[in-house]
Design a protein that fits this description.
The protein is an alpha/beta fold and 238 residues long. 38% of the residues lie in helices and 11% in strands.
């Protein structure tokens, strides 16, 4: 147990102190200095953001990256912006969170049976990390997954997160759910991918970004259907 706690502490410290990608370091720190007018009296986190949640979780949620004025400000994934508002309300309805809103790291939010990570740990310009930046961050996700032995379902929020999860877990076995011989599984909302017996399932979802939710590409009903499906998968029925 002590070794596991030490591994978590070391990983979170390493993530928060990472400076591997000069473009991302410059952007996140510039945003933290300039601030948004609504948050001008706040001290921005301005660093890479570690994962957050229940370390005994059966559900791993992988997002894209911290929002410039959300997690880059608050220091917690999906906290303090509209994407987080949409996500945590859904997790609350599905029983994975104790409250439907998240405003700061000390607001009392508790995730139940869920852990949130990301493909990229720094806020990227225009929400678009480069391929090299995603590759530099991928080991952090892989190490988190290694420290989450109970995960039975991974929910990837958006194509970039979906691709990152596939890179960590490897190609699914041909012939299983969501796969076909010789082809990379295609991203799509509420698509289910199987990696084989005794391995987590992967569910893809559109990202709960303002662009998707305000245009109707992702509705409350569509998002709730993802979390309802999670509850029906092997290893989740209890």
């Amino acid at each position: 147990m002590d070794d596991t706690l030490n591994a978590w502490d070391h990983l979170e410290t390493e993530i928060a102190s990472c400076r591997r990608c000069p473009r991302l370091v410059a952007w996140r720190e510039d945003v933290a200095r300039a601030k948004r007018r609504a948050f001008r009296d706040e001290t921005y986190w301005g660093k890479p953001v570690p994962g957050f949640g229940d370390r005994a979780a059966r559900v791993l949620i992988v997002g894209l990256a911290p929002g410039a004025h959300g997690a880059n400000r608050t220091g917690r994934m999906f906290t303090g912006d509209s994407s987080g508002d949409f996500l945590y309300a859904a997790l609350y309805r599905a029983g994975f969170a104790n409250q439907p809103v998240s405003r700061s790291r000390d607001d009392g939010l508790i995730l139940r049976d869920a852990y949130i990570a990301a493909a990229c740990r720094c806020a990227p310009p225009d929400n678009k990390p480069t391929a090299d930046e995603l590759s530099a961050c991928l080991p952090f996700l892989a190490r988190e997954i290694a420290l989450l032995p109970n995960v039975r379902v991974v929910v990837a929020l958006g194509r970039i997160a979906f691709d990152a999860v596939l890179r960590v877990y490897g190609a699914p076995q041909p012939g299983l759910a969501g796969t076909s011989a010789g082809k990379t599984p295609a991203f799509g909302h509420n698509v289910l991918i199987s990696f084989g017996p005794d391995r987590p399932a992967l569910i893809a979802s559109y990202h709960p970004s303002r662009q998707n939710t305000q245009t109707g590409r992702l509705t409350v009903e569509m998002f709730d259907a993802v979390w309802a499906r999670v509850r029906t998968l092997p290893g989740m029925i209890a």
